[in-house]
Design goal:
Elements lengths: L1 H8 E8 L5 H14 L3 E9 L12 H14 L3 E4 L5 H11 L2 E3 L1 H12 L3 H16 L25 H36 L4 E6 L5 H9 L16 E6 L5 E6 L9 H6 L1 H8 L3 E7 L5 H14 L7 E6 L18 E3 L8 H12 L4 E7 L4 H10 L1 E7 L5 E7 L1 H9 L4 E2 L10 E4 L2
Parallel strand pairs: 1-2, 1-3, 3-4, 5-7, 5-8, 8-9, 9-10, 11-15
Antiparallel strand pairs: 6-7, 11-13, 12-13, 14-15
Length: about 425
């Protein structure tokens, strides 16, 4: 069985050069995708993208015949293209090559199916695969033509293709319902975190930028961090202790990639919702890759497509230890970006400082006076707020100054715990609250 798997994993890669995209970068990424799918690359054929694209084959007839001869000589049974093919093109190429043909989206879906570990992740991948397969169903039962109705079931019946499509639709609906249930559970967890006023951070970035290594470095976790595309598929959440002794929830998310297949974005909406509900994004960039400016644009494009482009973001340039002298970047550390090596730990403490500042930059200075009997409010303040300074008044009350965000102040107001009485103390509108 192992030998059979090796046989079907041997592949010929067909790279269509696209002048719009960096050819070298595109070529390397395509090879890395294939290797991440455990494909044994036997050979790579590079073809230039012509103005005229064959409707039936995508590539020209001469190129197709060249590949056909190559396959016969090498006995390779798997051909992978670095572009997306239409169902008709894929089917025609398979008939011509007498080999399995896989396009870029099919390759990415295969990687995702290998990486999915959680119940939700497996459902999301299956949904993406079924939506992809729905456009590729072909008549494979022409010898049956029609399923006869039989006694009591008279009528024209339906073709096997129609039956397959009906079963496929039923399966898709079933998975969508199950994912909706999981999504509702996620929403309850998110609402609970919001009620507790726990900041939420998401690590995003191009695939293989070092997100999981940074996640482990910040949280002390031991999640998989491998030099492979899409090493992390299922989102992982951990607690991170910030410099002001407050906690936040940080999430390691799936890596983005250029032209992320539409089916994946749709299927992983509940997972990507974790990103859209974050208070802060950490955008990790692989500085050792010369194409990093292009990757930044691709990630920004995906963030915009899911409605997360307005969330505060820190740009983190990772892997400065590879072909770079970290000291050359020390003067560039700023409020919205920094340079680190998640592998060696360089710049991590500085990053934590930036995270704390960015999470609490909109906090307002507040002062309240509480009787000793209001210990519950005092506990809330120590749990939720920062820069707390507490003194006693002559009448034996607590006079507490602290920094808090507007939602928490509104929460205290709406709960009826305190009676708001505002006194303008300075231009920054420091407020004094007194219990009623």
């Amino acid at each position: 069985m192992h030998n059979a798997n090796n046989f079907f994993n041997k592949a010929l890669l067909i790279h269509i050069d696209n002048p719009i995209v960096d050819a070298d970068n595109s070529h390397n990424e395509f090879t890395e995708l294939a290797l991440s799918a455990n494909v044994k690359i036997q050979d790579v054929v590079s073809l230039s993208k012509k103005k005229y694209i064959s409707t039936n084959l995508f590539i020209g007839k001469g190129d197709a015949n060249f590949i056909e001869r190559k396959l016969k000589n090498t006995n390779i049974k798997l051909v992978i293209f670095n572009i997306d093919l239409s169902p008709t093109q894929e089917r025609n190429l398979e008939n011509l090559f007498s080999a399995r043909v896989l396009d870029r989206t099919g390759l990415i879906l295969d990687i995702f199916s290998q990486r999915a570990m959680s119940h939700e992740g497996k459902l999301q991948v299956e949904l993406a695969q079924l939506n992809y397969l729905a456009t590729r169903l072909v008549r494979g039962w022409s010898h049956l033509e029609r399923q006869k109705g039989g006694i009591g079931l008279r009528g024209p019946g339906e073709t096997q293709l129609e039956t397959d499509r009906r079963l496929l639709r039923a399966r898709i609906i079933n998975i969508e319902k199950r994912l909706k249930k999981v999504s509702n559970q996620r929403e309850l967890s998110r609402n609970l975190r919001q009620k507790r006023n726990i900041p939420r951070i998401s690590i995003v970035g191009y695939t293989n930028a070092g997100k999981s290594t940074l996640f482990n470095c910040l949280t002390g976790a031991n999640t998989l961090s491998a030099d492979k595309l899409f090493a992390t598929l299922d989102p992982i959440h951990r607690k991170i202790i910030l410099n002001n002794k407050k906690n936040a929830v940080i999430s390691d998310t799936v890596g983005f990639i250029r032209n992320l297949p539409h089916h994946l974005i749709e299927s992983f909406k509940s997972t990507l919702l974790e990103v859209t509900n974050s208070n802060l994004l950490i955008h990790v960039v692989d500085l050792s890759d010369n194409s990093y400016p292009h990757y930044i644009k691709e990630v920004d494009s995906v963030l915009k497509s899911i409605g997360a482009d307005k969330i505060p973001k820190i740009l983190v340039f990772n892997k400065v230890d590879q072909n770079y002298n970290p000291e050359n970047f020390s003067h560039l550390q700023q409020h919205s970006f920094c340079y680190i090596s998640a592998k060696t730990g360089y710049g991590i403490e500085f990053l934590k400082n930036i995270i704390s500042k960015r999470l609490f930059e909109n906090y307002e200075s507040v002062q309240i006076i509480l009787p000793k009997i209001d210990s519950k409010i005092r506990t809330h303040i120590y749990d939720k707020c920062i820069e707390i300074n507490e003194t006693f008044t002559k009448s034996g009350q607590w006079k507490i100054k602290f920094m808090s965000n507007r939602p928490f102040i509104k929460y205290l107001d709406k709960s009826g715990i305190i009676n708001k009485k505002v006194e303008k103390k300075s231009r920054n509108s420091q407020e004094i609250y007194k219990t009623g």
